[in-house]
Amino acid sequence: MSVEFRRTENSLIIEIGGEIDHHSAKTIRTRIDAEIVFEKTEKVIMDLSKTTFMDSSGLGLVLGRYRKLNDTGIAFEVVNPNRKIYRILCMAGVDKLVKIKGVEIV
Amino acid sequence: MKERIENSMKIKFRAISQNESFSRIVITGFISGANPTVEELADVKTAVSEAVTNCVVHAYRGTDDGTITMEAKLFASGRLWIAVSDKGCGIEDIAKARQPLYTTDPENERSGMGFSIMETFTDKIKVTSKPGRGTRVVMQKTLKRMNGSLC
Predict the structure, then answer these.
(1) B46 touches chain A (CB under 8 A)
(2) What is the pLDDT of residue B122?
(3) ipTM of the predicted structure?
(4) What does DSSP assign to residue A50?
(5) pLDDT tens column, B66-92
(6) pLDDT of residue B142
(7) Model pTM greater than 0.80?
């Protein structure tokens, strides 16, 4: 599992590689929350294009970040989930709360 | 007539979070001989991950000494039977636990979707539990064989 950050003019992009499960979610959560505090940003984008697996622990991670960012008025998007991960996000209604972009259409 | 069992396994491992990915690798290895589709493999891996994670998070809360037992059987019909069990604290109210979004651990960002995902990704699940004694989750899914033959 890997977490990498990139910054553009107004956004923080978080690239999560590998598998998001209960074990890895703890580390990902800590790293993301530390990075968000570090410098102010208008938008946070979670890029899941390199995420190969996600179970309900990933849902908790996404929802937790949404709640934190919503409280501070920072926009939050999830981009490029694979179809399986997108399905799981929709099961929990995350698509109603968070903008999800780049879903593969088959 | 009793269904023929193609393959079976039983494994015990510590209820620690490192073993969540281990359990996914184990079940992947077990069912790979049945030629699952990419979808089926992803579904089974995710369902197993949810069941094992529930044991790690809830069964032995506060201790590292607990054990998880995972059994699996693959029948000639393609029916896959998986049981994940623990000897932990058990579930007081199974119906409540199975409700989508219900969790006893919101502080740690648990989504409460574990059972819902297990139900969606398998054909059926059965949960039995005795408070103070442990919990067992049995999941079944019939794999459609490619070309209708076994490998």
Answers:
(1) yes
(2) 97
(3) 0.92
(4) T
(5) 999 999 999 999 999 999 999 999 999
(6) 95
(7) yes
Residues 6 or more apart from B29 whose CB is under 8 A from it?
A: none
Q: Which of residues 53-92 of A touch B (CB under 8 A)?
A: 53, 55-57, 59-61, 63-64, 84, 88, 91-92
Region of residue A33 (left: phi > 0; alpha: psi -120 to 50; beta: else): alpha
Give the model's pLDDT for residue B96: 87
Q: What DSSP letter does each residue of chain B carry, written as one string?
A: -PPPEEEEEEEEEE-STHHHHHHHHHHHHHHHTT---HHHHHHHHHHHHHHHHHIIIIITTT-S--EEEEEEEEETTSEEEEEEEE-SS--S-HHHHTSTT--S-GGGT--S-HHHHHHHHSSEEEEEEETTTEEEEEEEEEPPPGGG---
Indicate the residue of B45, B56, B116 with minimum beta-carbon distance to A22: B56
